[in-house]
Amino acid sequence: MSLLIAMTHWDVESWRARFQRHLPGMEIVALGEPFDRRGVHFAASWKHPVGSLEGLPMLEAIFSLGAGVDHLFADSRLPDVPMARVVDPDLTARMTEYVALHCLIALRQQRRYDRQQREAQWIDDRNQPAARDVRVGILGMGVLGLDAAGKLMALGFDVACWSRTRRDVDGLASFAGAEGFKPFLARTDILVNLLPATPETDGILNRETFAALARDSRLGGPVIINAGRGASQNEADVLACLDEGILQHATLDVFRMEPLDAASPFWLHPKVTVTPHNAAMSSPDAICALIARQIDRLGLGLPLEHQVERARGY
Ligand code: NDP
Ligand code: OXD
After folding, report:
1. Ligand 1 centre and the CA of 142: distance in Å?
2. Of 52, 98, 109, 265, which is least packed with CB atoms within 10 Å of its CB?
3. Which CATH number describes the domain made up of 89-274?
4. Rounded to the nearest whole angstrom, what is the distance from the C-alpha of residue 183 to the centroid of ligand 2?
5. CA geometry: angle at 312 spanning 88 and 53, to 5°?
6. Phi first, then psi: what are they for 205, rounded to 5°?
7. 168-221 pLDDT, tens digit each
8. pTM of the model as a whole
9. Which fold is adopted by the domain 2-88+282-299?
10. Beta bridge partners of 4
């Protein structure tokens, strides 16, 4: 019985060694080398090549090596077996750190103070809004959104969320579906995107969305933070809205094309913060341990945890 490592861009040998440690009885094989296709019961994928999981007659499950699964659905020939994704407390905590960091930078106007420091300017400015005066709106209230929302509320921010289905969380204003979208945006000063990339969320961060954000922000204008997926942003609209003052600042961890091209205008834009898709790095060991646990569950006849719903696309 074997587990197939099906990845591009990552170092296969370090993953093989980790899987071997966590699954001592399992043969670990990888794309690009000869292996018995009938022996493969499990596949661990990060951006596997289209069609490369076909022709595995004993395949029982596919594991995404990340929290996102858009890379799985990018394969139009994906076998119809159960799929699971990464949900890991360490990854979740890191995403919350990222979101809280960038909300606090916006709240405390840190970029302005950085500028003033470079210019040796001491401006005694007492006009600091309190966190309670700043409305954060989180798109996507799943594992990551919920954790970030709780901690932002603990910092005092006025937090709302938008998701497919409503959330009943104390102190959190919940909006859902198409009818909830505009009211949600209208009370948002900092828009945080933690949505998965699906056909429905493609390009959701666009001019119309930005124009519907609150115009009476204590921060002086709407701020966006995208740590979900690049496919959710219309990049031409982000740049145009920053230049036109419809947006005040954009912090972007994800892009339509990654790595971001050296010629991209995002790099040098004065109102953009770029991070290299590392808002929430996953610990490879934690991922292998999670997959080993899932395989144990299947062996015991239990369903996979964190199962991906094919019809929803996440
Ligand atoms: P979950 O699946 O737990 O949550 C997804 C949320 O998005 C749910 O609240 C869901 O609604 C909502 N949603 C999905 N589609 C729609 C839609 N069409 N309209 C409204 N709401 C929608 O995912 P996670 O929180 O674990 O992760 C979110 C994403 O973050 C990942 O898919 C990945 O793309 C990204 N990510 C980025 C990382 C980085 O380093 N930048 C690291 C890890 C993840 P409902 O609750 O109703 O189902
Ligand atoms: C993920 C990511 O999906 O790192 O885990 O983007």
Report:
1. 6
2. 265
3. 3.40.50.720
4. 29
5. 75
6. -90, 85
7. 999 999 999 999 999 999 999 999 999 999 999 999 999 999 999 999 999 999
8. 0.97
9. Rossmann fold (3.40.50)
10. 29, 43
